[in-house]
Amino acid sequence: MTQISDQNTDPRWGMVIDVNRCVGCQTCTVACKHANDTVPGVQWRKVLDVETGAFPDVERLFLVTGCQHCEEPPCVPVCPTGATKQRADGLVTMDYDRCIGCASCAVACPYQARTIVHDQRWYYGQETLQEKYVDHKERRGVAQKCTFCIDRVDDGLAAGLTPGVDPDATPACSAACIASAIQFGDFNDPDSNVSRLIRDNDYFQMHAELNTDPQIKYLYSTPAVPGRDVKDVDVSDETLSDPSNPLVGQLQTFWDMRAAMNFILGGFGAGFALISYLLYLTAGLDGETLTHAYVLAGGIIAVGLFFVWLKIGRKLRAPFAILRPQTSWMSREIYAVGVFYLAMLADLAFNVPSLHFLTAAAAIVFLYCQTRILHMSRGIPAWRVRMMPTMLMATGVFEGIGVAALAVVIAMPALSGIYLLSAAGILMAAINALLWQTYLQRARKAGIGPLARGVLAKATPRLHLVGHLLPIVFFAADLLWPGGPMWPLAVAGVFTLAGGAYWKSVLITKAAYQQGYALAKFPQRGSGQFAAPPLV
Amino acid sequence: MPKKNVKQVPIFCYQCVAGPDLMKVEVEDGIATRIASNFDIREEHPGGGRVCVKAYGLIQKTYNPHRVKQPMKRTNPKKGRDEDPGFVPISWDEALDIVGKKIKETLADGPLDESGYPKIAASFGGGGTPTQYMGTFPALLSAFGGVDLGFGAGQGVKCYHSEHLYGELWHRAFIVAPDTPHCNYILSFGHNGDASAGVAGIWRHADARVRGMKRVQVEPHLSVTGAVAAEWIPIKPKTDVAFLYAVIHRILHERDWRLICDMERIRDDSNAPYLLGPNGYFLRDPETLKPLMYDLSDNTAKPFDADIKDPALEGTYTCAGVEDGPDGQQWHHDAVEVQPAHQKLIDHIAPYTPEWAAAECDVPADRIRRVADEFVEQATVGATIEIEGRTLPNRPVAILLGKTVNNGWGGYNACWARTLLLTLVGALEVPGGMIGTNVKLNRPADDRFVSAVMNRDGFMEFPFNETSKQEWQAKPHIRNAYRTLVPLVANSAWSPALGPAHLPWLFQKKPPDHWPKPTKPEIWFCYRTNPAISSWNAPEVAKRVAEFPFIVAFSYTYDETNHFADILLPENTDLESLQLIQIGNTKFIEQLWGHEGWAIRQPAGEKVVDSMDMTDIATALAERGGLLKAYNQAINRGAAGQRLVTDDYDYGLDEEVPHACEEIWNATAKAASHVMTGGEKVVDIDWFKENGYMLRPFSKLHWYLYPRLKDQGIRFEQPYQERILRHGTQLAHRLHEIGVEWWDEQLEEYEALPEYKPFPDIWTDYVKDAGQSPDDYPFWALTARSMQYSWGANVGIPLINEVAQNIAGHKGVIVNRSAAKKLGLEDGDPVVIESVSGVSTGYAVLREGIRPDTVLMIGQFDHWKTPYAKDLHLPSLNSLTDLSLKLTDSTGSGSDITRVRITKGKGPKRAAA
User: Fold this and answer.
1) Measured distance CA(B559)–CA(B37) in Å, rounded
2) Which CATH class, in words, describes the domain spanning B758-904?
3) pLDDT tens track for B856-911
4) Interchain pair B234, A30: CB under 8 A
5) Nearest CA-CA partner of B184 in A25, A228, A24, A222
6) b/e string for B470-509 if b means 16 or more Cβ within 10 A?
């Protein structure tokens, strides 16, 4: 139950969903599909069929899901174009003509509310007459999600109707619901239906611990069936590892190896720029060679950016990605890489210490932006952990050593002070190994589910061997064999890069399970321990 | 972008029996684009004016590229599942000429064949919903002068069979429903109302739950209805009767029934005080033959309608009287020991203790006791409520029976026990309790009160099919022989469909002894039904269909039944056709309205294939078949839903000429509005097209039959079933007189107080009879309603499939997770499900909400012809159940249950969605 303020004059649209009313009929799902013309496989509103417990102590319930129009929507700040915004009335909106389809919002949403459809889809495999009329070409390749039927709300208000009261001004799912389970209204109006419902009943918000303050609030008790705390419900690893469990987050497919390549090569390039600058400061690398090293770093970064450009849904709109530097780390990444390339070119032309520094600094900022992009993906528990920026920065530095090792062997064999590189390599290998172990140890507590943890654990031996142990061995060989051949250094560099590429690809394409769904409270019903108490 | 030429067209959805619900179709440039509820009627409609998920499939149904796009003619005379029908397009003229000529030839020497069966047969989909779409086709059926409507399309999951028959007998309840707005406690035995009771059911129950109503769901698997119940009791399949009997036992033997039951209702409104003679029949007054009661106030036996101050319910008395037995046999007693029916009941129920039931149904005895006590407590015996100014008993408890519970063997026991329990606490046909919603076997069908008149024994009259020697119909008049075999099914327009509707398919293969030759219909019309999928042993039914010589199938897409057809006639579908239907009043499941009236279905968009309205098809066939006058006469008599000519008005059609669809419904619109308004506001079809519906108030007092009975002094015929005993005995005599012995097991079911039998054994014995070991078939296979699919002919609609996938069970067969582990099955594994009579394949869906000895296949699938559906690879119980006399009860019904084994199949796991 909650206290409702009547101070705010702006409406705050939201929903109250009564878990005790919903029978899982999917009328809301299909009404939404009609009202919003979504294509096959896309459900802005979806009702899950949830089961918990073990026979004969079982509970089954239906969970209405979709965009929660959070008070603090994680999808909005990450949008690099401003295509996703939040209005004063709380609605989180989509501008299909501005969106580039980068999917930052999709991986940021802990409610799996967003979809990107790249291909043309017809229900019967061929376009029907009706589909000609309800096709939305503007949605192809861009993010889409529930809008709380924003047009119905706005048009209804303009027509003097009251959203949540008049069906024509109410989101289609709510208006269509045949159990009155989905109520829509203004949380800022203390007399609205939704305000009364949360005032008079217990409710929970999904993933409240993520501080998104979602504006779908779930009622879970009635006079006949009081609610229960979630501690009674099976949240064991076995349950949360079951792919048929609808609560379990699916592996995200928005970002694939193309996106991973940006993080891999971004780390390689930016790290190399940093290490080259450090070699310039400490190991006698001359300024001209440094500018050449920057060009190489720039080339590596460019290839990574090219890969990620291949992934976005609307490639020609890529420049829009600079429009949100005030919040988006992707926009900032572009600005940083822009500064890097300008500085790199200027340095190539003028070869001066200030530009040497600026280029390296821009590369590091670029790398930091990348770390924050992943960290801000709050829909992916394996990415959003607090130590993710540290891990990616440390890896970037390590990878820079790896690239530098190769570069030294191939192009700069006479460079003095190389032992520093190998020593740093050993140190960074150890730090990275330590960070990885810490990451694994904290994974469960950090909310990373068993499926993702399983992937990470499975990757660990290979990562430690290839990415940490072997680099240490060969960097040590280089150190302990003064005047010896250069190949151990080169081998160390190769393993360093292989290790970095490996764990980032695993993290982004294999361990990237979405948040999934959860009920903080359960109605008390079902059988055995879940059943409502006897009446007599 | 502003929309051009957009309009909202009001129509109705009656895709399932729980309708109708009203909706609006958004039409843009003649193309139907979207569906939404018709919120104009949200205050009056008991489901808030909403339509359910199925309605939204109608757009894709209309524009389905797999539609039959013009009339088709079969070119391959060979019929078989593996035969290509060789359908070729023909014109409507040619198609109608062929069928019209065939009708004319067939009826030339009368409507009956050499066996006395109608030469023309027709089958429709379940629940009477096809009549809400078939326009004036009923008038054509009427004009045939005889048509066999007894080839069923499957009962089982689609039918509350026993409830229909016994419900109408006991309280004019073809369908029973709780008085949900007032009910506080529902004991539900597998009643899957949140999947099957439509919008109104879901709407009203959601309100009731929030208000505080408690529902206890007793069922082997946790259905969507069980999911929102306050408690799930996972009972062993087909043992619900044991639970019910133990509840009765608890009340009558372990509690003091004199204190907790509604004694006034038992004494004054049931046959509990009726005295029973030694032969099991009421002891009657020798002169008037009125049943006697024993008045303790002066220790004399008196006719039930005499002034009896203190009727005995218990004890044994010595009285004089006569027992009026079967076939006129009478036993005259000068002084004989007799007992009230209530005493008989107490004795009858004595063995059925909760401990006995626990062993039978796998529910702990204390849990049964607790439920029984809750039920009695919640009945609030003695409480009253005022409904529209009249004070009535308030008994907010109800008992619901699912289809497999009240169908087939055990259905009689379950219906009897349920109705008896409600009688004991006075919850029958009163606010808060169990009420009937409509009648189909009694006439008139539009008002269930009218037929509630007293018979000689103080109960409601009931139109049993005669079993007396003089009047019994020894020769079946249609192939399912309902008038011959099932006295209880009466003889209304609905009776053929409620007879033993699967027996014609069975008898076509192997006729029983001493029975008329089971001829094939010379013409079989098939409308909105697919018996080759929806019947028990569907593959066998498909073979029988293939033997029919001439099949006219009204077809939307190709399907498993019209695969065998000779002519396909594509009718206008839901968004393309015109019809007026009655709405409101009290209808089926939970459609209990405070209004009544009419609603329209009209063409919403432009037609996209060369289809034709059913009304125009019926008219054209009537004309070509030489039946136009009879057809028009039938319409004038009301075959389109409203009489067009009465003493008050005349909107009649000229009987000599054909009339266009629009003209016929225009006349109906005028007649209907005339009746609605007493002639004050007569409107035409255009008015309905614009406004969608017309309503007038309907008294909620008309929801409850009890006041109507009370006013006439009529008693509920509970607990003792003397009429059933008499009819059963007489029927046995009749059948034995003609040498029929294959119905003997069914005849044993005609008991005055039905005894419990171990019903599950019927199906394990069936395995043994097939020469196999029940141990090899360790699972009970059940089915359950899919709200998304049921009745909508929407199995070929991808949108429906997409959203249905969100609900467990729409991906395969549900198996208990632990049981599956023992079999080495994982979720998504391919499986083979086998019974002694059939096989089905699909994928395993592992869940916890199902007993380890039970598997569940939702809906009806296993399609092999219907486009899109045939690629769903979903299993079906109908491929596993059998058509069998052994599995048929006395009302001609069977159950959706069989014993199966399940093994891992070949091939990859089910692909992720």
Assistant:
1) 30
2) mainly beta
3) 999 999 999 999 999 999 999 999 999 999 999 999 999 999 999 999 999 999 98
4) no
5) A222
6) eebbeebbbbbbbbbbbbbbbbbbbbbbbbbbbbbbbbbe
| One-letter amino acid for residue A527 of the chain | S
Q: What domains are there in chain A, each with its CATH number?
A: 13-250+518-529 (3.30.70.20), 257-509 (1.20.1630.10)
Among B184, B210, B909, the residue to mutate for chain A (most A Cβ within 10 A): B210
Do A260 and A377 contact (CB within 8 A), yes or no?
Answer: no
**What's the confidence (pLDDT) of residue B651?**
98
* Segments making up each domain of chain B, as ranges: 1-137+518-682, 161-442+708-737, 758-904
Task: Dump pLDDT digits (tens) for B387-442.
Answer: 999 999 999 999 999 999 999 999 999 999 999 999 999 999 999 999 999 999 99
Closest alpha carbon within chain B to A59: B227
Question: From CA B882, how far away is CA B769, in angstroms rounded?
Answer: 13
Of the candidates B56, B210, B828, the beta carbon closest to that of A30 is on B56
**Tens digit of each residue's pLDDT (9 = 90 or more) over B493-536:** 999 989 998 999 999 988 899 998 889 999 999 999 999 999 99
Longest dimension (CA), chain B: 93
Nearest by CB to B31, from A129, A242, A246: name it. A129
Contact A525 B230 (CB under 8 A): yes
Q: Which fold has domain B1-137+518-682?
A: Rossmann fold (3.40.50)
ipTM over cut 0.90: yes
**Cross-chain residue pair B53–A224, CB shorter than 8 Å:** no
Backbone angles phi, psi at A268, to 5 degrees: -55, -55
User: How far, in Å, CA of B264 to CA of A121, rounded?
Assistant: 67
A25: which chain B residues are within 8 Å (Cβ-Cβ)?
A: 52-53, 194-195, 202, 224, 787-788
Task: Provide the terminal-to-terminal Cα distance of chain B, rounded to the nearest Å.
Answer: 34
Distance from CA of A169 to the nearest CA of B (A): 12
Least confident of A474-478, B405-409, B703-707, B787-791: B787-791
The answer to whether domain B161-442+708-737 and domain B758-904 are alike in fold is no
| Residues 6+ away with beta carbon under 8 Å from B911 | none
Q: Which of B62, B66, B807 sits opposite A26 (nearest CB)?
A: B807
Cβ–Cβ below 8 Å for A527 and B39: no
CA–CA min distance A62, chain B (Å): 8
Q: Could you say which DSSP state residue B776 is in?
A: G
CATH 3.40.228.10 is the classification of domain B161-442+708-737: yes
In this complex, which of A23, A34, A246 lies closest to B34 when CB atoms are compared?
A: A34
Angle value at C-alpha A163, between A162 and A166, nearest 5 degrees: 65
Kind plus residue range of the DSSP H or E element containing A81 = none
Listed as own residue / partner, the contacts of B333-337 with beta carbons closer than 8 Å and 24 or more positions apart are B333/B277, B333/B278, B333/B283, B336/B277, B336/B278, B336/B283, B337/B278
Rounded Cα distance, A447 and B295, in Å:
76
